[in-house]
Design a protein that fits this description.
The protein is α/β, with parallel strands linked by helices and 289 residues long. 32% of the residues lie in helices and 25% in strands. Keywords: Kinase, Transferase.
Amino acid sequence: MLLAGLCTVDQVQRVAEIPAPGEKVRSLSMDVAAGGPATNAAVTVAALGAGATLLTVAGAHPLAVLARTDLEAHGVDLVDLDPGRPDPPAISAIVVRDSDGERTVVSRNAHSSTHSVLSMRSLHAQLPHSEDEMPGCVLLDGHHPEAALEVARWAKERAIPVVLDAGSWKPVFPELLPLVDIAACSSLYRGDDPREHGVPVVITTAGPDPVRWSTADGSGAVPVPVTQARDTLGAGDVWHGAFAYAVARDQGDVPGWIAFANEVAAERVRHEGPRSWTAAVAKMGEGQS
């Protein structure tokens, strides 16, 4: 599978209670891992047993080594569109509450840069060329907009399904949505209705509430498994990765793809830490083979 979007460095502190303004608390644990919507989705795809190639911008800053090392350890092939970039990658400061897995996140999105335009030449060189290398699905998160548009156009020309993780509205969406086959929006999404841009399948996730879907032929909702959440960090990203994995397999239908993604995301939130869930998800992938 091919995934394109944001790669961050996540610094995660687990605490008994989220501190009030001006308060200092001691963390129960600390983790550092690669993060970002497309990145966590890529880790999910790899955990499920499929090939995962992540197109992103990491750069040459020492902090980028942390992300590269984590992704390599979890089977993700990272393609850096701007490997000489000297700036640090986007960093997310995350606090997770121990009692229920709720989290707060302070982060920045991908930096805008003229390098993003110059990197298009690198992007085209990295995209598959032979028929047997073509991915079964492409997942975009809308970050690095020039790359997102180029990948979407490339996939559209080859009739490869394009899934958009539309967690929040981004300025590139009016141009990107007409190239998308499935838009998976969060309940916090505020922007144009993807249907207005011709997106044939629109999905809305809402945490523990049922996932709603609509197509030209109908609509419905798929319940989310009831589970005790220990860590909700990246659960939506994991959902999108599992959903795209199901689409790439080209088996079943929209409700079935959603049901599978719901099960994988539910498994993720049962585990503490940014990567502790991957072994359990790998077993779910074995069940799909």
